[in-house]
Specification:
The protein is 69% helix and 0% strand. It has 504 residues and is an all-alpha fold. It starts with 5 loop residues before the first helix and ends in a 12-residue tail after the last helix.
């Protein structure tokens, strides 16, 4: 059951929302939190009872360990051992479900063995709920987390708008909203704004992402089957996938924020027009923002600070200091972030591409190189982003290499293929142009809804939108426009189209 399925739209969501209002009327917000935790487990159980058992076990174990870490805060040695064991247990469980068969393949390749794959089911969203809870453990150990009640912790770890594909929430964002609340569960403004945001996300997913997806699929599947590409088709297919992933994931994130808002819990932003970024650092501040925050807070910053202190203590030269305290930590961080996305060498290479690009970007600033014109910066950034996404999407490195070679005029060095992918460029190119213009020229959803801030992130200080910019208002015109969006979105739902990030 996905947010864009009729089952969710017509049965699960209305039932869950009516129950939310009734439970609040009977028991107030204190009764709402365990209810929403139960609803979230019911949502997740739709995939299978086995998988919800895995999720529930993870929640129980991490709550117990997190509570112990808070109790043992003064006993640093013991709590550090407990933290390390708990993090290792979480990574071990994630590794078992997600990376076992990848390790078998690698072992067979290197050692020439013939081990068979294990029959494993990858729990939906395991990377997300595992890292959300690791974040809680780290903050419990550092003393920045208070002990929550179990029902509130269970809701934090399983909240159905974000358990499958983020955002990666922090405990402070969720528990801070679960205090002694007096506000009503139902608010006409909350319903209007939350529904509008959800519908915008639904429209992005089923109209934009699902419409352009077949063109990307044709190119990647064709090359994987042995066909070749000319340069125009290679670029068009790569841009189709870039736009498909953008609208798929940003659509999901909008729907998650809208659902959270409707149920009284604000979630952090995950997208802020990343394809408008003028540097690769800027891109990662805008794309999958909560993942970037997680890896920055818990991996890059501690490692960079530690290496910086050592560099100064040992009197490193500026180049040595840059390599130790900036380049190495950022490459390692994005290598791990790449592997976090999925099991395969393509994800390793994807992480390395972005890690190295970020290292160059940091070095450029560190050594005070001339600032690039924004247009040049945007062009270089998009070259890295689109090329990286080719590796991200390709089923293997050979397919990725062939598409990249065709994109960058190196196809002559490849074996002449027996056939070429025949993409309908008459439809694909106008579609890429239209969606690209929407991405680059239109305001994003939080900018459109800026008068009604729906995120747990701080509202930007400047809230006066330019006169030309679309800004949502509770007017008949916007109600009509939203209705059109809903009708088009629902009319575009075809079969079961899952979100791309569900596989992570």
């Amino acid at each position: 059951m996905t947010f864009n399925s009729f089952e969710f739209l017509l049965i699960f969501f209305p039932g869950a929302y009516i129950g939310f209002l009734l439970i609040h009327k009977i028991g107030g917000w204190r009764a709402v939190y365990p209810y929403l935790a139960a609803v979230s487990l019911a949502f997740y159980a739709h995939w299978s009872l086995l998988l919800v058992t895995v999720l529930a076990t993870s929640v129980l174990c991490n709550y117990a360990v997190g509570s112990a870490l808070i109790e043992l805060r003064e006993r640093k040695h013991l709590s550090k051992i407990l933290l390390l064991l708990a993090v290792a247990g979480n990574i071990g469980a994630l590794g078992y479900f997600k990376y076992t068969n990848f390790l078998i393949d690698t072992t067979n390749l290197v050692a020439g063995t013939g081990f068979s794959h294990l029959d494993l089911i990858l729990p939906v969203g395991i990377s997300f709920y595992t890292f959300i809870q690791i974040g809680f453990l780290l903050e419990a150990y550092s003393g920045t987390a208070a002990r929550p009640t179990f029902d509130r912790y269970a809701l934090f770890a399983t909240f159905f708008p974000c358990v499958t594909a983020g955002p990666l929430v922090l405990q402070s964002e969720m528990f801070g909203q679960m205090g002694d609340r007096k506000d009503p569960a139902f608010s006409s403004w909350r319903v209007m704004v939350g529904t509008t945001l959800f519908c915008m996300g639904l429209f992005k997913k089923v109209v934009f992402a699902d419409t352009i997806a077949p063109y990307a699929d044709q190119v990647f599947a064709g090359v994987a089957a042995g066909s070749g590409l000319d340069m125009a088709t290679a670029w068009t297919g790569s841009l189709c996938y870039t736009l498909q992933l953008y609208f798929d994931f940003s659509g999901y994130s909008d729907m998650a924020l809208g659902l959270g808002y409707l149920f009284g819990i604000k979630l952090p932003l995950n997208f802020n027009s990343p394809l408008k970024a003028t540097s690769i650092s800027d891109f990662w501040r805008r794309w999958h923002m909560t993942m970037t925050r997680f890896f920055t807070n818990f991996l890059f910053s501690p490692l960079a600070m530690k290496n910086t202190r050592r560099a100064f203590a040992k009197g490193y030269t500026p180049v040595q200091r840059y390599l130790s305290a900036a380049a190495w930590p950022i490459v390692l961080t994005f290598l791990i972030a790449g592997i976090w996305h999925g099991a395969g060498w393509t994800m390793v290479v994807y992480g390395l591409i972005h890690g190295l690009a970020l290292a160059v970007n940091l070095g450029w600033r560190e050594f005070k190189m001339p600032a690039l014109h924004p247009v040049v910066g945007w062009g270089l950034t998009m070259c890295v982003v689109v090329s990286g996404l080719v590796v991200f999407r390709a089923p293997d490195l050979a397919t990725a290499g062939q598409i990249l070679a065709s994109m960058w005029g190196l196809a002559a060095f490849l074996t002449e293929p027996a056939s070429f992918v025949q993409l309908d460029l008459q439809w694909a190119l106008p579609l890429v142009t239209l969606l690209g213009a929407i991405v680059l020229l239109m305001p994003n959803t939080q900018e459109i809804l800026r008068r009604h801030w729906v995120s747990s992130d701080p509202k930007p200080a400047e809230d006066r939108a330019p006169a030309w910019q679309l800004v949502w208002k509770a007017t008949p015109t916007w109600a009509f426009a939203t209705s059109v969006v809903v009708v088009l979105a629902i009319g575009s739902i075809k079969g079961q189209s899952t979100f791309l990030y569900y596989q992570f």
